[in-house]
Amino acid sequence: MATLPYGPLMTGGYKFILLVFLSFWITQSKAQDYDFLINWHGEEALSLLIKEIELSEVNVRLSGKHQKIAGTITANEGTLFTPYFPFANNVTYQVFNDEQLLFSFTPQKDIKSPEVKNVFPVTDELPVNFLKFYIEFDQSMAGGHVYDYLQLIKNGAEVENAFIPLKPELWDANKQIVTVWIDPGRIKRDLGPNKKYGAVLEAGYSYQLIIGKGLKATNGADLNAKFVKSFHVFERDEKTPSVTSWTLNSPTNNSREMLLIDMQEVMDYSSHHFMSVFYNGNEMEGDFEFISDGEISFFPKKSWQKGEYVLKIASKAEDLAGNNFNRPFDRDLNKLPNVSEQKFYEIKFNIL
Amino acid sequence: MKKKLLTLFLGLCFTSALFAEEALKSGFVKGNPEIKSINALSFGPEGILFIGDSENAKVFALDTKDELVNNEKADYNVASFDEKIAAMMGTTIDNITINDIAINPLSKTIYVAVTHSNGKPALLKLLDNDTMELVGLTDVFYSAQSLDKAIASESKDRRGRSLRMWAISDLNYANGKVMLTGLSNQEFGSTFRSMAFPFNQNQEMSSLEIYHAAHGRYETDSPVKSFTTTNMQGKDYIVASYTCTPLVIFPASDLQSGKHVKGRTVAELGNWNTPLDMIVMEKENESYLLLANSARAVMKIKLSNVANFNGSLTEPVEERSGTAGVDFIALPFVNVQQLEKLDEQRFVMLQRKSDGNLTLWTSNDRWL
User: What values do phi and psi take at B44, rounded to 5?
Assistant: First the structure.
């Protein structure tokens, strides 16, 4: 297995003395003028080119550190150092040839701050046993620290431990939407946290979900203003969703008109990812889109034809309380000893 | 004659070792596996490192070629572990996340999965307290198994990117099987997956749902956060902890495709607490489960108590420090994020100390 260049870690008291000496020596060394270039790709500083000089022992370090940064070196009309991770914005680096300081540089670029685009569900009325928020940002976000910036406020005070700080965090593939769970241990009846502290949310009260400033985007910029979603809480929702009440419009034959799916209740934001449309037994190509908490649209890639179509909904799709089509979020075995194992539910519709 | 027999014996050992290696790594290819994320790590035999890659919806088996046995490894003790990684990777600690650590049972080298804030993964190995290396991932011997189509192909956006993510939260290898569990960004379901190793693309993967019951009355299918395997009274078991605190066990023989398995709840791990990692250590013919938690000290549970606990929490149990079920002992280690077995006597912890310092250090069986 290939390994890349690295330097020894520094530990221990004697090494500290050595570090102090090195730092002193480094700062006292007179840097020459070097012609160099930082190669940017979008908002990321990907490599450093030292022009017209081929250096055999070049290495780059964070300013004041002895550790050499992992990366690759190529020589071709100059020396190109490509760190494994991109250089950080506004951080100073020092370039050495072996132990001789050559110069310092600081990648700097104006980068766009992220903004909260949406919080789903959009509604401001949520049940006591509400389970998940989806927070959408306008650009990809850095993972790993999202729970440090979330708060739930009730009557001006923070509700402690409202969210379960999941590792790994639940981001979509683009890192633009993060799913955040209200602590399920407090929602599930008869579990220790539920018995001792009750549900996180209380019916009749108003709350604010706060996404605090400082949450970092992939490009290194911070959320520069806090975002507030206010909502009111109503009683517990134990009812499993059902497609029997859903209504569909009738798109015109030979058109690519939108199919509008009215779910007649507020469903989880992800519902449109659990649907598919079939014609003559074949799945239609097209795009499902979220219109509102209770409405989904489907735009086919090819025109509708006369005949019978089937909208299939996976039984795993959930409502706001995590109840899916087969079973409620937490099932009372005395009242509901058996549940359906059905994988899909169907709605037939005709194009005339 | 004795010398000849010894030579023959050693020859047979060598041949069988070669044959075993050939068998386990026979499907490996050389190249770039194009790993997109490293969410979980676990070592198998012969220096094979399993990597759970959520973004690819794949498990990779990597031949680390790190097979030299070291039975005299010095204790690990590295202060400011995250700062040292950040310095080596040329960035700041808020730009990196340590996803998982795994210890090669042969060399005792620690492998560390790190992710940059831009999503790029890195695999590092810590040879000793002073030496860390970046492990190349683009020219390696490997094999791969895709997770089932339900994860990989459902629900794409207009640019073909998967909208539904299944974030692998734990991965373990035991008895010829790679097992993994994860959390969905869109459903609160539970799916536990198991696949035979060496990987066989044609073989169906076991995928089962694990339920747990609250005092026998309320039943939920809930995501498993972390798990380990163990043998109790001659039978293989999976010990699993849910995101919402129950600790359950179920027989490994229940791992059959499509089956719905109800885990037997043996403990609740306390309020506002998420289980993070677990290992099994042995001492004087007793096995102990060590469990790291987000809001509790490391817990020690004697596995014979788990095996003998038949209550399944069907009746409300007197609470003890906010937990219930089998007896446990809180060890004096709080804010432990990762736990790994170093050898039969020692284990390694990644712990956020009270001064904020993230330290990788070694403890031993005096606590068992």
Answer: -105, -160
